[in-house]
């Protein structure tokens, strides 16, 4: 279905098993360029030879299910678009033109919000697969914000013995005007392969692959895997800013690196800046390559725990306010990375511009390290009481 022009509303509809005439993701079973549009409580599934939804214009997609579309779930081009509270799953089931669960590109001078979506089991397996769950590449004047999403069990790349190199199992970012905040990014995979010269291709950035200078705030990145480097995060030749992120137990095969920092070229080094980071249960917490050019890691406020080595590589590290101790996560095997009383993260952070935590609760006094701010039972209610009384 193609919609072009003025106002468009689709509510409670099912678009199922469409076959696109044009064999490309950009066709979309539902191809909308409207102003304004509202798509709600609908199902777009099992599209053959294209993606499920292609959106541009101004509008909102909410409360819908985007499932098992062959060339990718959703494609967002230019527009002021909000995608909220959807389930995007099992897209990218096959074919030569497969894209991510949600693919965002273009975004000229406009703003795209992806909020509160559950993005899971999507698979980008076309050659140089970038972004299993979400691919983001905004233009210079656009802005893309991902907040409060659960991004899990997505894959970039096909299989270790096939030449389809994967980058960014959960999220692939190529651009600077991108914000990731309050997301739980877990159990995603980036698969690579060895070429005939035994060079490693792909297999980088199990959770997040970063090219550009995005901002990451209050995210938990855990249980992700990469064949070769950066099971948690891979940073290539860029200077992203990372505030209050919790990186824990990302591991697979030869790589169990929390954050891997590498140059893009001999003249383009990586220089990430981190504040109030927790790095736990990694073989190498943060690795900075230094063989081609000295990549530089600046980190202020760190909690290390249970890493075989906290840092690695011959790059340059400027670390301050480091702490070592048990963060006392509530239930890490169950995916709960809130911290408990007695956590070494509590009140050990440094002051930053970040005033809330992953739960949208205020930072309290001296900020805690990582994504969660600990509040004693009942404490938060007292703070919110005046707000409640006003209503
Ligand atoms: Ca505190």
Name the beta content range.
over 45%
> What small molecules does this complex bind?
calcium ion
Within the CATH hierarchy, at the fold level, what is the topology of one domain? Pectate Lyase C-like
Global mean pLDDT? 92
Strand tally? 40
Description:
The chain is 3% helix and 45% strand. It is mainly beta and 391 residues long. It has a domain at 100-332: Pectate Lyase C-like, CATH 2.160.20. The strands form five sheets. It has a 30-stranded parallel sheet that branches. Residues 385-391 have low confidence and may be disordered. The structure holds calcium ion.
Question: How would you summarize the topology of this molecule?
Answer:
Blueprint (H helix, E strand, L loop, with lengths): L1 E4 L2 E4 L2 E3 L13 E11 L2 E3 L7 E10 L2 E3 L6 E11 L2 E3 L12 E5 L4 E5 L2 E3 L2 E2 L4 E2 L3 E5 L4 E5 L2 E3 L2 E2 L9 E2 L3 E4 L3 E4 L2 E3 L2 E2 L1 E3 L5 E3 L5 E4 L3 E3 L2 E3 L2 E2 L6 E4 L4 E3 L2 E3 L8 E6 L10 E8 L3 E5 L7 E10 L3 E4 L3 E9 L4 E3 L4 E4 L39 H12 L1
The structure holds calcium ion (CA).
Task: Give the structure's gist in a few sentences.
The chain is mainly beta and 391 residues long. It has 1 helix and 40 strands.
Question: What descriptors fit this protein?
Answer:
binds calcium ion; 45% strand; four-stranded parallel β-sheet; 40 strands; single chain; disordered C terminus; 30-stranded parallel β-sheet; mainly beta; globular
């Amino acid at each position: 279905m193609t919609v072009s022009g003025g106002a468009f509303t689709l509510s409670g509809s099912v678009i199922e098993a469409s076959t696109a005439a044009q064999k490309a993701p950009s066709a979309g079973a539902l191809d909308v360029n409207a102003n304004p549009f509202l798509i709600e409580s609908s199902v777009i599934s099992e599209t053959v030879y294209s993606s499920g939804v292609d959106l541009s214009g101004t509008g909102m997609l909410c409360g819908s299910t985007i499932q098992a579309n062959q060339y990718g779930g959703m494609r967002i081009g230019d527009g002021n678009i909000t995608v909220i509270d959807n389930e995007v799953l099992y897209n990218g089931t096959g074919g030569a033109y497969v894209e991510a669960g949600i693919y965002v590109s273009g975004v000229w001078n406009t703003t795209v919000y992806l909020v509160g979506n559950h993005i899971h089991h999507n698979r980008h397996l076309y050659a140089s697969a970038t972004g299993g769950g979400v691919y983001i590449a905004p233009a210079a004047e656009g802005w893309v914000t991902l907040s409060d999403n659960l991004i899990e069990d997505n894959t970039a790349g096909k299989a270790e013995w096939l030449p389809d190199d994967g980058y960014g199992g959960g999220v692939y970012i190529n651009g600077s005007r991108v914000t990731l905040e309050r997301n739980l990014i877990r159990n995603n995979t980036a698969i690579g392969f060895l070429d005939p010269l035994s060079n490693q291709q792909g297999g980088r950035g199990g959770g997040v692959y970063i090219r550009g200078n995005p901002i990451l705030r209050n995210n938990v990145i855990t249980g992700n895997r990469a064949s070769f480097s950066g099971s948690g995060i891979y940073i290539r030749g860029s200077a992203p800013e990372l505030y209050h992120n919790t990186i824990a137990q990302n591991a697979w095969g030869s790589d169990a690196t929390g954050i891997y920092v590498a140059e893009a070229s001999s003249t383009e080094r990586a220089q990430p800046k981190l504040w109030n980071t927790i790095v736990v249960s990694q073989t190498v917490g943060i690795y900075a390559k230094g063989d081609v050019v000295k990549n530089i890691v600046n980190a202020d406020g760190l909690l290390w725990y249970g890493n075989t080595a906290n840092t690695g590589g011959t790059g340059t590290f400027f670390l301050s306010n480091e702490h070592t101790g048990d963060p006392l996560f509530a239930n890490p095997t169950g995916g709960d990375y809130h911290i408990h009383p007695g956590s070494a993260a509590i009140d050990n952070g440094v002051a930053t511009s970040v005033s809330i935590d992953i739960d949208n609760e205020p930072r309290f006094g001296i900020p805690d390290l990582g994504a969660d701010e600990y509040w004693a039972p009942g404490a938060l209610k007292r703070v919110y009481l005046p707000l409640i009384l006003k209503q």
